[in-house]
Amino acid sequence: MDENVQTLHGIHGNSNVSNEIIYHAVYIPEENIDSSIENSIKENIRVYQDKAEALKVIKEFKTGRLKSFKKRSEAEEYAQTGFEKSNYVNSTLINATVPVVEEKSNNFKAPRSQDLICFKKLIKDGDLYAVKTTVWENPRYLIGSGDTPAILQEGCRYNALHIAVRADRPDMCELILNTVGNTDFIKLLYGDECKSYVDRAQIMLDLYLNTPDKGLNETPLHFAVKFGLKNVVRILVSYPCCIKTLPNKYKQLPIDIICTRTCQEDEGLKKEIRLLLEDQYYVPVLRSDDNTLQPVIGEPFSPTNLLSLNTDPISPRLEVRAFAGPMTKSRALEFRKKWKTPPRLRMTPIKKTDDESNAIDSPTNNLALRLQDVEKGLERVGRDLAEEYQVSWKEYWLFLNDFADFRTKEGLIKLEKYLEHKFQNQLLHHNQTSNENLINSNENLQTKSQIDEIDYLYNKLQSWSLLTSNGEEQNNVDELEFFTPPSSPKLTVDNSDDEMQNAEEGHGTFLEGPVPTKLDHAVYNAVSTSLNSITYPNIYRWQHDMQLAMKRDLHRKNSIRGIRRKLIMNF
């Protein structure tokens, strides 16, 4: 009995399912309908309960679409619109309200693997010029397609900075970091339409400094520290976005692995690197724009704790015009104290050697520099102190509109380029002046030739008037011999050596014009005395002109002093 009931129930349930009506709707796009049958199709809505009939229509219209519904209203709507009009309206509303951000692809292609191998070799060899030329011709050597550092060595996923650090190339590290952090470099890659290239430059600099490798999860700072590369560490930590507390795969910080991969134990090197990993401080020189205030030596500051200047809107604006560092805080305080406080004069006379007398610790020299040179006196003392403490030094030069140290290669290159441009302008001006003088001289020669012809005719007529008789002619000749006797030329004594100095000096070119100014003397004192004339020909030429000008000025001063002594003695 129960089995019969279950069988009947199952049959009844299946009959309910089979009795559900399914509507098969066929939608035919309007662009695929002939105009002759368009009206008939619109009047006849293609909704079928038999799926075979719907499939026949699909075979007739290849672009038709078939869809099944349980409700006839939905099937009719689909057959008429295909649900496209509502979607179209929604899409237009979305497009009108939400702006579409499109990033145009740049014109630089990704380098091939062979090119990346050659580029990696240039980094290892330290060829700065070739690397700089390559990356500025195609920024994709440094920036990958995903706006991340380009991978130069697969597997461990080394970028350009990883390779430069492992090769112990501090100059190459600085070049790479300065390039990726340069807004002009980012602008070259993404074009002028990109308004966020400043942020992208900072992001790219942060990625290069803090991106770990794939093997040990170590940053470039880890590499430099564990191999004992002190100069590379100094370059890396000089950037504020360099994070010194990132752990590697074994949870070790850079300060925990100092010199762990060096061949020899060097406690002095470990100490220097450990000091570099501490917070770095700089000692600045603060000056006002209009020099209405005396220059001061500011408090030591760090990139994470900058100076608070110009809090008073009434007072003159102060700016950092020079700074020494980086140093630890204790060493920066010691540096500032020695820089700010002049050494005391010795009460008892002590015989000094030449080196001691010229040292910066000399109180006489220290005070003389501060008092005589108001514009660069503090900088001159700080420059020598930085050399004594073996720290970097930078000072601002208005004619370069940049900070530079003319005792380093980088600063000398900046000065060399400026003087090269200066001498080229002088040569161009000299050529133009010579051409104008040549034209004027030709005109003067033509005028003079005409005047000479008139004088020649006049002299001829005058000579004919003198030949009146033999006696008169003889008397005139005698008179001429009496009044113009043969004599040697008069000796002219010139006691002035200024003409000699001027002839030796010639037409010099200086930083602000044809004569040296205070700026020339300030730069002359800042430039290293031993220079290679082949490497820096324009600086060497400018130094020569400065030496001649200084000799001439010294001679004039001595001449004036001699004249004063004679005048006093005569009285």
Automatic annotation (TrEMBL):
Which keywords belong to this entry? ANK repeat, Cell cycle, Cell division, Endoplasmic reticulum
Q: One short Pfam family name for this protein?
A: ANKLE2_3rd
Q: Name one GO cellular component term.
A: endoplasmic reticulum
Record GO terms (molecular function): protein phosphatase 2A binding
Localization, UniProt: Endoplasmic reticulum
The GO annotation for biological process reads: cell division; nervous system development; nuclear membrane reassembly
> Which superkingdom is the protein from?
Eukaryota
Q: Which InterPro entries match?
A: ANKLE2_3rd (IPR056237), Ankyrin_rpt (IPR002110), Ankyrin_rpt-contain_sf (IPR036770)
Which residues does the UniProt record annotate as the domain ANKLE2 third alpha/beta?
281-396
Q: Which Gene3D superfamilies match?
A: Ankyrin repeat-containing domain (1.25.40.20)
Family affiliation: Belongs to the ANKLE2 family.
Recorded protein name is Ankyrin repeat and LEM domain-containing protein 2
